Amino acid sequence: MDHIRPMFDQTTHYEIELRGRVDADWLRSFDSSVEIVADEAGQREGLTVLSVHTDQSGIVGLLRNLHGLGVTILQLRIVSDGG
Fold first, then answer.
1. Running DSSP on this structure, what letter comes out for residue 20?
2. What residue segments make up the domains of the chain, in order of their start?
3. Sheet holding 73-80, edge to edge
4. Closest by Cα among 33, 41, 29 to 14
5. 1-22 per-position pLDDT tens digit
6. CATH code of the region 12-80
7. Helical (H) or strand (E) element with 13
8. How confident is the model at residue 42 (pLDDT cuts 50, 70, 90)?
């Protein structure tokens, strides 16, 4: 039987586009690794872009919580990989 070694995901930079506005203070209390990038100048109105540095379990947890709150997730992008 082969021995399986656990592989831990490295921190990755993600961007998540959400429909609507997300309160910055609420989001910081929810997860300190999330930075809100506002789209006030030039992007579509009613869009919030989150810049997130976390590992795979962190992004899955964040997506589940956003979904559970009824936030519409429009897109998830990997901006840069930690590897």
1. S
2. 12-80
3. 34-37, 47-54, 12-19, 73-80
4. 33
5. 566 655 556 888 898 988 887 7
6. 3.30.70.2040
7. strand 12-19
8. very low
